[in-house]
Structure formats: C-alpha cells, structure tokens
Amino acid sequence: SRFSTRRGTKAIMAEGDDETIDSIWDLLRKKSKELYDKDGGRDRSAGKHPRTLDQRMFDAFASYFGGSADGAGSASAGGTGSVPTIVLQATINDHGVITDLRRAGCGPVPPNVFAKYFCNAELLAMLFDGDGQPLWQGRSHRTATRRQRLALIARDGGCVLCRAPHADCHAHHLLPWDAPNKGQTNIDNLALVCTDCHNRIHDLKQTLYQDKPSGTWRTRAATDGETAPPGGPKHPGRSKDKPRPQRE
Asked: Global pTM?
C-alpha cells in the first residue's frame, strides 16, 4: 500500500510471509553495507558520512525500484534496467529563476533529487499559456502520442474527476473521435481520466468539460453530435464478461 506519513513524506508498505520479508530485508541491508563502504566505511567517522543509516537503507530500496545516482535501476545493481518517465513542473519568474519545482500530481522536488533526474534524463520541454494549457500541436490519429500524454500528465496530474494517479489514467477525448462532430486528438480536446471514470462517462453517455473560469472539470449529458456510436473501440480495462467494479 502507498500512503502519506505524519511528516508529509510518502511511504510504501508491503506485507508477506516471514521468509520472503526476511530475504528482502537482508538484500536491502547488504546493499546498504555496500553504500556504507562506498561512502568511506570505517575509515571515515560517522559524523562525516554523507548519509545516515536510514538514508542508506532508503537508497538501497531505491536502487532496486526507483533509480538513483549510485547506479540504481541498472542491471548491475540488481534493478530492472528500465528508465522511469518523470514529469516535473516548474514555475519560472520574469528573471528566469525557478520559483517552484514539483513532480506532476505530487509535491515539491528537493534540489538534490532534481540533480539526479537532470544528470540521467532525456529532457523534453513544453510551454503553457496563462491558463495552464500546454502549447502543443495535436495530430490527426485517434490515439494520443507519448509526448501528448506527457503534456496531459503535466497539465492534469491525474484523473481530472477523482484524482486517481496518472498511471491509472487514459487520454480521454472530450468530443469522441468517432462521434458525428468528429473530435480531434489535440491537447485541448483531451483529458486524463481513470478507468472507472472513463467507463462511467461512456456508459452514461456524458460529455466531460472544464468549467470556466474556476477550472473545475464536470460532466453533462452528451448531445447527439457528441455521442460515439455503439460498438465502438473497447476501452482499456473493460470486459464484457466481467462486471465493472464500483468505486467506493
């Protein structure tokens, strides 16, 4: 499970059988010991080590799942070898100084974490207008591109209706692609919605729209020109043979 601590930090908790938990813990302790030796080990006094035991244990955990400047995420470090996609949002003042830096849908990013991202990243930049709309050209195909999805993550953070994480969301056409009025795959015609909200919108024949000037996303009954024909493309996560779970 994923949750927030009383200190405002994020945490992950896993439960399991003793043998598996012990093996994972031993693996993390072994990696932590490697980091301790790399930081100077016994040849360096505890007060001069760059990180505490708790920080080394977290870095050991991150080396297998999250990535770090210590070779985390690489096959040699025991990780998956994959590179995560991370969307950062920055506010820049008139003098070109970053006044706010945060991860899309999350909180502020510490400078040392940003430095790790910056040193090991493929950088893609996007600009926004005064209303927070990405200045991004659309395309004429039904499915949103990877870069369009990144723009949606930066703009919406997560599901615009229930705030589910962006990893659980689809790029939803406000005006359906196959509706009589022919919606386009442009950023201003797309929004992130989770599987439950996405299916609910289509099941109830609704239209998603953003209320101006509050910026709140709402739904209303779709007109004939806004309704996709029956038997269209199946939406991700839906099965005709399995009833859709209800959100609590």
From this structure: 0.48
Q: pLDDT (tens digit, 9 = 90+) per residue, 13-55?
A: 999 888 888 888 888 988 988 888 888 888 888 788 888 888 9
Which residues of the chain are modeled with pLDDT < 50? 69, 71-82, 137-139, 233-248
* Cα gap 244→2, rounded to integer Å: 23
* Three-class DSSP labels, the chain: CEEECCCCCEEECCCCCHHHHHHHHHHHHHHHHHHHHHCCHHHCCHHHCCCCHHHHHHHHHHHHHCCCCCCCCCHHHCCCCCCCCCCEEEEECCCCCEEEEEECCCCECCHHHHHHHHHCCCCCCCCECCCCCECCCCECCCCCCHHHHHHHHHHHCECCCCCCEHHHEEEEECCCCCCCCCCCECHHHEEEEEHHHHHHHHHCCEEEEECCCCCCEEEEECCHHHCCCCCCCCCCCCECCECCCCCC
Here the tokens at position 187 are: 């950023």
